[in-house]
Amino acid sequence: MASTFEAERPTDYLTRLAASDLGRAYKALVVDQLKIQVGMTVVDLGCGPGADLSALALAVGPTGRVLGIDHDRGALATAARVAVLYPQVHVQQGDVHRLHLPDGSVDRVHTDRVLQHVADPGAAVGEAARVLRVGGLAAFAEPDWDTQAIDYPDPAIPDAYRRFITERVVRNARIGRQLPALCEGAGLDVRRVIPITAVFQDVAQADRIFGFQRVTHRAVEAGYLTAEGARDWLRHLRTARLFASVTLFVTLAEAHS
Asked: Fewest CB atoms within 10 A around its CB: which of 21, 71, 110, 230?
């Protein structure tokens, strides 16, 4: 079992996902939908280690500006390496709930799997709306963990596993479905919502996203699964034909006067 499942969450989780076929596909779609033009100013909220900064830098060109903001100094140290390669990229420590940027000062705002973790997604969306210029666009790419579907003979087991994730693991587990209302509440016009459903049939590949073993062990400790049920569940995932999926929603919203 140890050869199939990762025992600990890897430190390069964000950049590894960005480099996967899934990550490259949906990230390219998001940048395309933002319709970034040369010379624009783009803010990447919660930029982490900078997985999206290169693509944004190429989109704005040498006359544009990309600002990556994150609260994590360690992640920013990694993101700063991108700034060395692209002079138009700048990174700084900051709070997405309270941006030190003037009103109407940026053309595009981008988040990717960030708002699922913040203390107040509404405040973060409100700040995005505040700093956008009239006609500016925001793209919020966020998962909805309640859409997770995993095939198993006893549906109560994956249901309990999913409930543990939505109730105890991810702070804002249903943010994908909540973003349109949050955007409208912040005064943004929702232009489009794009669902992106990732389907996994290889257990090792799926485990890189879901962390089956470590999450299952935590679910047992929290009382969502029994030890016997968890053992059978992990054995099935390891040996049977897998079907697992989860949906991420890209909400595109525009600032208006």
From this structure: 21
